[in-house]
Amino acid sequence: MNIAGALADLYTLQERDQELDKIKEQQELLPPELIEAREKWAELSARLGQLKERYLTLQREYKQNDLEIKDLTAKRKQAEDEQMQSSSVREQTQFENRIQQLSTRIDELTELTMPILEEMENLAEQIQALEAEMAEMKPELDALEAKNAERVAQLEAEYQEKFAKREEMAASIPKNLLREYQAIRRARKGVGVALVYAKGGVYRCSACSVQLPTHVAQRVYQGQQVVRCPSCGRLLWKGPQEG
Q1: Burial class, 53, CB count within 10 angstroms (exposed 0-12 / middle 13-18 / buried 19+)
Q2: Span 171-196, mean pLDDT?
Q3: What is the 3-class SS of the chain, one letter each residue?
């Protein structure tokens, strides 16, 4: 195969590659309704997580206070029992002071615990409401995800079919030229081969629009060697109009 024919096939291959690129882009492009549903679900999940974290923090604080109240209550009961068994006024007074101190601390903790319980009850209601909202939303989200998965699968089937034909086409192109094209295409936004077009006696690269030196354009039109654009580095082809 001569250079001109190989470049012509390579340009056709590039069209197939660009079709494949578009399919991949379509696969990654999510439907607006799915994006919206995912964002709402993420927002609700984050909010639910925050509420549950706060609830657990309060629960730990409540349990700590409750344990301390129970411990202090047991100590107060012991002090009351010992006071009843004491015989001296001094001991009676000491136990009375001890009982008073314990009672004061129990009252303080009880007063601190009540708002915690109230907030926990409020949080439990909010958590329940959020979980109900998410449970109601889940079937809709699942349906959108399933529909999108089906769409992606159909595109993948189309991609594989076209990719197989693309590989058949690529097999007829010289391997060294194909490797060069693929490297340029990866580096140059999916375009490895560019047409040369002439207007008003001026030759330009169709990819970067830079004016080509006359001797470069002449080498392209002669079709005897692989020529790259001196500006963007893409392979240059004279186009089908020149045969």
Answers
A1: exposed
A2: 96
A3: CCHHHHHHHHHHHHHHHHHHHHHHHHHHCCCHHHHHHHHHHHHHHHHHHHHHHHHHHHHHHHHHHHHHHHHHHHHHHHHHHHHHHCCCHHHHHHHHHHHHHHHHHHHHHHHHHHHHHHHHHHHHHHHHHHHHHHHHHHHHHHHHHHHHHHHHHHHHHHHHHHHHHHHHHHCCCCHHHHHHHHHHHHHCCCCCEEEEEEECCEEEECCCCCECCHHHHHHHHHCCCCCECCCCCCEEECCHHHC
Q: Which domain holds residue 56?
A: 31-170
Dump pLDDT digits (tens) for 140-179: 999 999 999 999 999 999 999 999 999 999 999 999 999 9
41 lies in the same domain as 149: yes
Q: Is-contact 54 123, C-beta < 8 A?
A: yes
Same domain, 86 and 136: yes
Count CB neighbours of 156 within 10 A.
14
- 70 is a domain residue: yes
Instruction: Identify whether residues 82 and 141 lie together within a single domain.
Output: yes
C-alpha span between 157 and 155 (Å, rounded)? 5
CATH number of the structural domain spanning residue 102: 1.10.287
Q: How many domains does the chain have?
A: 2
pTM value > 0.90: no
Map tokens 């009375």 to a residue: 96
Asked if residue 118 and residue 44 are part of one domain, the reply reads yes
CA distance 127 to 140: 21
